[in-house]
Amino acid sequence: MITSSVRSRSVLANDRLDAHFFTSPGVAAFERITVGDIADSRWTTGRVGDVATVWEPPRFARAYAAPAEPGQPYLRPYDVFDYLPAEGDRLSLLRNNDVDRLVPKPGTLLQTCSGRNLGPLTIADDELARFALSHDMIRLEVDDDDTRWYLLAFLRTPTGQALLRRGKSGSVIDHITTADVESLPLPMVSKDIRTAIVNQMRKAGIGAASGRSRLRSVLTAQEAQLPTPARAPGYGSMWNSSSSQLRDRLDAAFYEPRIRAAREQISALGGVRCGDLTEAILPVRYKRYYVEEGHGRPILSGRQLLQADPVNLRHVSDRSFRDPTEYEIAAGMTVFGAVGRSEGRQGSPALVTAERDGWLASNDVMRLKPRAGVRPAAVWLAIAAGQSRLQINALSFGSVVDHMNPWDVEELLLPPVSDDLVTAAERGWDEFSMAGTAAAHAVALLDAALQP
Asked: Are residues 85 and 25 in the same domain?
């Protein structure tokens, strides 16, 4: 049974007394801040609209750029949370009005405002400022730097997230408006706590921006050294393969000419079999028993493992598994989605960092465990190469959802990687790890201060 005490002044203010309303997390948080323990404390409470300019672009009919047409890289809303965002498409600069307005300035807070996972937010850095974003991301622009980091921390707390969802509307898809965000109460905790929170959040933001920039530079340099084979001019949907080239498959995608060209490229450079560098692991399906945070361990899906800030992270009880250790991921593993659309993010790799050591991942996630003496970042970099991605996607099979086998992954031919790029990649992932730890510390510190 869920119970909650209600003040008479709150009943009068809301003009209702139904339990469903007053026991919701958002209403409880609003009560605590505006008429409860926080309101009665020495802290001041204002509104988000008092410190931030909150706005969103108008809705527009997207006209995507043709292959040779000038375009602006475009991100879907939840792509902004990725370690390395990849453009979902390109908006036509000729057939869309005022595309520049869709590009966030560095330092802008980006708040999701639509969808079943409504609530997560992030801050735009130089990398995100290369992309256009749709009207489904509310922009919060804050002039004062300290206030900007404090607001980011507050909106990430369970209290802030509950307040955001309190005003959601929509019969099918949840929405919040700029007015909902502007009206959110913003308690300003004591100066010493606020300073500690701001310092940690700033450290996290700078670290994540640096890590993203460094990893992007590493991948750009690798592509320059070993360009991914391009489709031939006039490339169509058919090609020829002799019977001597056929293995144990007859699906056409497995024999695409670019894949053969990629393997020839790697062979000429002295490529290495993936199984000689790593052990590929893909556990079996399991019966899921999801629980609240604190009663189980976080578990990553194939999509979430690419996100620096996992969206809608869930927790699962160990009783879901016969042996939970088979589903653990360890720092230094390279992981990627093994189930999903081969033309999408299937095969996009991430490196497991220290703060996620011991987390769980679903049976849709391929694990590559480096063998003794192999640098983990070298595995990630080799898998991230365009030639490797072509081979990975060609392994997919399935009539509806694409799958792959770990023993097939071990047969991939991986390109050699330079020590300099591996060292730079290690630094980039270390910066992401530090950023994740600092942000979690800041949010936990503020959340503890907001409790009664």
From this structure: no
User: How many helices and strands (H and E) does the chain possess?
Assistant: 14, 19
Answer whether residue 235 is part of any domain: no
The number of residues in the chain equals: 452
- Integer Cα distance of 255 and 257 in angstroms: 6
Is 163 a member of any domain? yes
Given a contact cutoff of 8 angstroms between Cβ atoms, the answer to whether 121 and 109 are in contact is yes
Cβ pair 45, 196 in contact under 8 A = no
34: enclosing H helix or E strand:
helix 25-34
- Half-sphere exposure at residue 391, Cβ-oriented, CA atoms within 13 angstroms: 25
- Tens of pLDDT, residue by residue over 399-452, are 777 888 999 999 999 999 999 999 999 999 999 999 999 999 999 999 999 887
Q: Which domain holds residue 274?
A: 244-414
Give the whole-angstrom CA distance, residue 129 versus residue 133: 9
177 with 93, same domain? yes
Long-range contacts at 69-72 (CB < 8 A, ≥ 24 apart): 69/93, 69/94, 70/94, 72/99, 72/102, 72/103, 72/131, 72/132
Of 392, 442, 382, the C-alpha closest to 414 is: 382
Q: What SS3 class is residue 276? A: helix
CA nearest to 335, candidates 299, 296, 367: 367
| pLDDT, mean over the chain | 88
CB 418 within 8 A of CB 382: no
Residue 345 DSSP SS3: coil
CA 282 to chain centre: 22
pTM: 0.90
